[in-house]
Amino acid sequence: MGSDNRDYEERFDAGNTAEKIYEGDGPGRGKLAIAAAVLVIAALLSVFASGYMSSPDTYDKTIGKLDDKKATVAKMAAGVTATSVAISAVPSDVGTPIAQELADLSGYFVFIYSAIYIEKYLTTTSGLISFRFLIPIALLLLLLSLFWTGGAMGKLRMLGRNLLIFSLVLWLVVPFSVMISNHIESTFEASINETLEQGEAAREEAAKEKDDKNAVEKFVDGVKEKTTGLSEKFQNFLNNMLDAIAVMIVTACVIPICVLLFMLWVVKMLFGFNLRLPSPRGKGKKLYGKVRSSFDERDD
User: Fold this and answer.
1) What is the rounded CA–CA span in Å between residue 18 and residue 157?
2) DSSP state, residue 133
């Protein structure tokens, strides 16, 4: 109740101030005209700057880092595929389970690759959407709030401010997430390269093992021991590759979402910014009620 009363008083005071401005008793129509001119100029500059903010050349470093990450994922996928084929060619079936597990990792690489592509295109698209559409609309709402009286003025001002803050957050989330991802990847870069080299060495040894089998055309105890040792190397490669995939999922998928949530939380703490979803109506309201009642029953 206290917060509602304060909001009402602020809107009432703002409406009275606006009415005084129109009557000539407030700070003056000159200040109102200056504020309106500033908002109009800012909106026009935002539209003109949208071409630069959506150009790939503006984000060449960010896009370059994403391309490097994409190349790393491609190397990992190629290494896993080649290693799986090499294990299948090893005499005996000792490496068959490892080969199947390696083959199952291909789905993760497609997921990571898609996330990198989305992040890459959002780098330029977010600048276009923010500066050509969202920011001008937000400034237009703030401009209308200057000439509106009553409670509508406060609503327009709050909506314009929230939309302006959201557009800036949308524009900054990808560069910030890439910056944090690069720091994490630099820490594990040596480990990922070592895993790729380990897989290459294991594949070379597997090819040599196959040649030995073709030449002798039979299994001997020495070959069996080598095959068992080779299986252990492939198992280590599988474990290290799983760690590398986990790092790539965190840097390509988890961090951008966390950065967006963190930036929205900081903005909310500083400016009281909050995204309120409209309450469901009609059939949507009935569906919402059913879903909520089902969750309440689970809790009970």
Assistant:
1) 13
2) I
